Amino acid sequence: MPKLEKRAWAEPFKIKVVEPLRMTTREYREQALKEAGYNTFLLRSRDVYIDLLTDSGTNAMSDNQWAGMMLGDEAYAGSENFYHLEEQVRKYYGYKYLVPTHQGRGAEHLISQILIKPGDFVPGNMYFTTTRLHQELAGGTFVDVIVDEAHDSESLHPFKGNIDLSKLAHLIDRVGADKIAYVTVAATVNMAGGQPISMQNLRDVRDMAHRLDIKVVLDATRAIENAYFIKTREPGFETHSIANILLEMCSYSDACTMSGKKDLLVNIGGFLAMNDREIFEEARNLVVVYEGLHTYGGLAGRDMEAMARGIEEAVQEDHIRARIGQVEYVGERLLSIGIPIVVPIGGHAVFLDAKRFLPHLKQLEFPAQTLAAELYLESGIRTMERGIVSAGRDSVTGEHTFPKLELVRLTFPRRVYTQAHCDVVTEAVEAVHDRRHDVRGLQMVYEPKYLRFFQAKFERI
Ligand code: PM9
């Protein structure tokens, strides 16, 4: 008798509340897509069947988190939930000081304003859209110092999020250490395909930066997913707990920006955390201008409570194994039918390689934007472009930047979709792949000034 395949990543929860999904016809979707200017960000959520746009704020909270929402202390100042969150951040991330923000970009705004002077450089392991924009708005120039393998969707390097130390050293030599505002280190690297950074690399970056008195700021948005990859891929960490790996990762940085909407299993929330008292004083002062008082930073007490509880759930081994296991399941199924995706499979998403999927389209015909639109048309599944539209224009020349990676992200919200949904997704991708030669590209007909991917509009060529 043939043996059943083992399902080691089965979900460590059962479902208590459900939300109905709406299916639509192809004709309906054709119209909806046209009205949305072929931009999946402009679709109405009610017109989407399986929503893989993002894992940001789309997670299912646990009964324990919902119970915590009822304990929201909505005092303007000194909310109990702030102190709980502060205690949890100290325990699991290890930083001394906490400033809550409404979401990750609130924290990016504060740290950029505090540490960047006009003319400074900010090296990092590949740009992220909101992070880079805040660095530029503060007068800085982002410089990508990630390893070359990160730009190659077929490289099997286990830590494609690593910083190339020689690129970093070269930049410091060229501009001088006093012109480096800080090193920004993302774990995992979203735009590279959810790829992790190794502990050894984090240690080396910290050593190089600290020798020259340069600060390291970690983007800890998906650091718990990164910790899972360190545990499963980096020799010596097999028996360490996710919580301990996370603490060690954070110990190699001076501060972190955090979007709690990802790892921390909430629908809204973020924070800036740091060890330096002076930076804390400035952040605490600035947060009242942009976000809210330093004990709520734009969040309700109940949101802080949900995030405090979410931290503890997020570091559980069975949770993280199931979360990444689901993404791997989809990625492996797609690989088995010859679909070009970024390998190794990332933590939060499977990334289709639109350049190899639609090789007949030029980059200015927006292959990834086109593929995301086609997937929606085919199946009602919503995904996100991560290619030339997301990369935007050069802040100095105003020209398009042409990223090597032209990707469509199938992003999995945590604890939301079932394995049957995963199978529907792979079938939909296969159906578009079967008719890929007939797919025509797009032209951009409206382009907003900032973060154009959110609101740009397109027409079929
Ligand atoms: N990431 C995502 O879908 C949501 C917005 S798309 C621009 O992947 C990192 C690594 C992120 C991130 C958001 C933020 C900003 C910072 N760093 O969205 O402001 O992936 O909470 O976080 C999105 P907020």
- Compressed to H and E, one letter per element, the order equals HEHHEHEHEHEHEHHEEHHHEHHEEHEHEE
Biggest sheet: strand arrangement: 2-8-7-6-5
For the record, give the distance between the C-alpha atoms at the N and C termini, rounded to a whole number.
Answer: 53 Å
| CATH hierarchy class name of the largest domain | Alpha Beta
Strand content: 5-15%
CATH domain topology of the largest domain: Aspartate Aminotransferase, domain 2
Unreliable stretches covering 5 or more consecutive residues? none
CATH architecture designation of the largest domain: 3-Layer(aba) Sandwich
Residues in helix, %: 25-40%
CATH superfamily of the largest domain: Type I PLP-dependent aspartate aminotransferase-like (Major domain)
Number of strands: 14
Which outline best applies?
Answer: globular
Descriptive overview:
- The chain has 461 residues and is α/β, with parallel strands linked by helices.
- The chain contains 16 helices and 14 strands.
- The protein has two domains: 26-55 and 317-460, Aspartate Aminotransferase, domain 1, CATH 3.90.1150; 64-314, Aspartate Aminotransferase, domain 2, CATH 3.40.640.10.
- 39% of the residues lie in helices and 12% in strands.
- The strands form five sheets. It has a five-stranded mixed sheet, sandwiched between helices.
- The model has no long low-confidence stretch (mean pLDDT 97).
- Bound molecules: ligand PM9.
